[in-house]
Amino acid sequence: MRKLPVELKCGLCGCGAILVKSHFIPKGIYRLIRNPNGVCPDPAHVSARKILSTSFQYQKSYLCQECERRFSNFGEKWTIPQLLHNHKFLLRQNVKSCPSIPAFEHFFDCSASKDVDCNKLGYFATSIFWRAAATTWPGIGGEPTTRIALGSYEEDLRAYLLGQAEYPRNSAITLIIGNDDDLECLQCAALPSGGRHRDGFFKYKLQLPGVLFVLYLGKKIPKDIRSQCLLRENRIVIAELGTYNTEVLRVSTRNAQLSGKLKWELLGMSA
Length: 271
Prior knowledge:
Strand content: 25-35%
Radius of gyration: 18 Å
Shape: globular
Number of domains: 1
Structural class: alpha+beta
Helix content: 25-40%
Distance between the termini: 48 Å
């Protein structure tokens, strides 16, 4: 006799439902960092123990179909085609057409743009930060990912993702778009990482092809950071990210060699 699907509790809405395969990093991101013309078309995965080209994706049964659809409609479906892919970078092109802010030439005001949807960008990134905090995800060899700690903000962000609340008061999410000429150095993704900043607030980073999202939480977030908020101020920064990518990878690899564990994991295009 065929075994019937079992209803379980959805990680987002909390309702009893038949759960579907959910991705930690959205499935469409993996397509962006594949190199179909390379010797190894699958992304290069950098971890504490090895560097290998693999088609592995972080996924498990975690959300109901309705919540999966919500993530797609409110963020993924619009955002992913905007990111860097095959030397095309639609988001950067559209943001550069927006007016820059006086005295801050790298800051762009996208509030009046019909081609840049800051709400969908912010929702998309927030959904991944929340997924990084809400549960662990099976990694290569079965080793689980490291959860980021969002404290009470985890529940606040869950309510926002469900459309039940505004973005948390003492929070800000910013977006930096890579302005590098060498697009290959931007063709990577990294699992969310971060924690308490020395100045008393919390800071988390999410690297995706061509962009860097940064989530700030806490009452001590500086005013200049609050003024860059993607969701409240509709502002986006364009700056070079290649140097950042190289430095983070160097430091993370060194720390992994010393501790035997890498909390920050990189997915990049293979040669």
